[in-house]
Amino acid sequence: MTDNNQKKDNQDEVSLYEKMVSQTEELVGSGRKTLDEALKRVQDDWSSAGNFTREQSEKISTYVKRDIKHIVDSANKGKTNVKEAVDPKRIGVGAKSIFSRILSSTAETLGDWAKKSEGNLEFKTGEITSPGSLTCKECGEVIHMKKTAKIPPCPKCHKTLYRKSY
Ligand SMILES: [Zn+2]
After folding, report:
1. Distance 161 CA to ligand 1 centre (A)
2. CA 57, CA 39: separation in Å to the nearest integer?
3. Who has greater pLDDT, 160 or 27?
4. CA distance 152 to 162
5. Residue 78, class by beta-carbon neighbours within 10 Å (0-12 exposed, 13-18 middle, 19+ buried)?
6. Closest CA to 24 of 61, 77, 75, 63
7. Among 69, 68, 57, which Cα is nearest to 19's?
8. Quick one: which of 8, 37, 65, 126 is 20 to 30 A from 113 by CA?
9. How far is the CA of 125 from the centre of ligand 1 (A)?
10. In the structure, what pLDDT confidence band is assigned to residue 147 with cuts at 50, 70 and 90?
11. Residues with Cβ within 5 Å of ion ligand 1?
12. Phi, psi of 143 (to 5 degrees)
């Protein structure tokens, strides 16, 4: 695979991620679906439309879920104010505050997500994630991601595991 193809694939997954967030937000925003129902519905729609395989949509939804859970978790532990975590001014100029509608929705919509703590969520090289700061678990190097992107290997020690903050 050439570099250009690799870039295009990365870009495709990032746009799928953003598309899934925005479609989920529409369903949650209309007030008829909980977060879990909305995510499942988007996955089903994508699969039945035949544009994406079940594997693709499941993979992307795993990233979306993890990122939402991580923000909700951090907020529950008092580490992050949800409003701050999704504030475009904090995330970076021009970056879309992608989860704002989901996270500002009611506690009923968030359901169990608002209560459950997931422990240590992992962020690995090669996965897509929303804007934030990633700290390498190995050497402590920090990467500031200003937009949704594929997580690179650590620029300093080339390891692949991070924790995330906002
Ligand atoms: Zn490192």
Report:
1. 8
2. 10
3. 160
4. 10
5. exposed
6. 61
7. 57
8. 126
9. 11
10. confident
11. 136, 138-139, 141, 154, 156-157, 159
12. -110, 130
Q: How far is the CA of 103 from the centre of ligand 1 (A)?
A: 31
CA of 106 to the centre of ligand 1 (A): 38
Q: Could you give the CA distance from residue 10 to residue 77 in angstroms, rounded to a whole number?
A: 32
Residue 57 contacts residue 17 (beta carbons within 8 Å): no
Question: Residue 111's pLDDT is what?
Answer: 65
pTM value surpassing 0.90: no
The backbone torsions φ and ψ at residue 132, rounded to the nearest 5 degrees and listed phi first, read: 160, -175
| Among the ranges given (32-36, 85-89, 144-148), the one the predictor scored with the smallest mean pLDDT | 85-89
**Distance (Å, rounded) from C-alpha 114 to C-alpha 95?**
25
Q: Mean pLDDT of all residues in the chain?
A: 81
Query: Coil, strand or helix: which one is 133?
Result: strand
Collapsing DSSP to helix, strand or coil, 73 comes out as helix
Are the C-beta atoms of residues 165 and 80 closer than 8 Å to each other?
Answer: yes
**What's the pLDDT tens digit per position in 57-74?**
899 999 998 988 888 777
CA–centroid distance, 119 to ligand 1, in Å, is: 22
Spell out the SS3 assignment of 105-142: CCHHHHHHHHCCCCCCCCEECCCEECCEEEEECCCCCE
> Could you tell me the distance, in angstroms and rounded to a whole number, from the CA of residue 117 to the centre of ligand 1?
27
